[in-house]
What we know:
Number of helices: 6
Structural class: alpha/beta
Strand content: 15-25%
Distance between the termini: 33 Å
Radius of gyration: 15 Å
Amino acid sequence: MREEFRRRRDAFHSQLDAATRGLAFRRPPSPLAKLIEQSETIGLYSSMGSEAPTLRLAEYLMETGKTLAFPVVIGDAPLEFRHVDNIDLLESGFKNISEPGSDCPLVAPDLIIAPMVAFDRSMGRLGQGAGHYDRTFEKYPEATRIGFAWSVQETENIPMQPHDVPLHMIVTECEIIEQVSMTS
């Protein structure tokens, strides 16, 4: 399943022109903007390849004065989030993903934006398969969980395991999908 959705994501991304890629996910849409406004520390992933891009959103979050944190992979433990006030502080880390250095202070996010390989409308998220984000969501149960993906990454049903933690919101380039209780 992961291979199929990576292929879909790669094909979709390769067909986008540079301007569209640059504008996608640049500013948070209204429901996400409200959650960001209510949050102090935002955990944001460093996008790679055809993943939903996060660089422009990172710039926006820093401009608005939010505490921006990026994850660091520490073996099989939950992700550590480290405060970054300048994107240049990121360095190549786990699987060549940009991560903050050890001199960046540890913080606890109250909103986490996570990448996905695939998703479904019941807020299921298929990640890379190592469980880093599920363990992290369990570590920060009060944090709002947001997934970023391209619309082509949607599937009918994500097979959820007992340890999988559902998202509160999914943001694509053309839609916002919210957990029912968030809008009530």
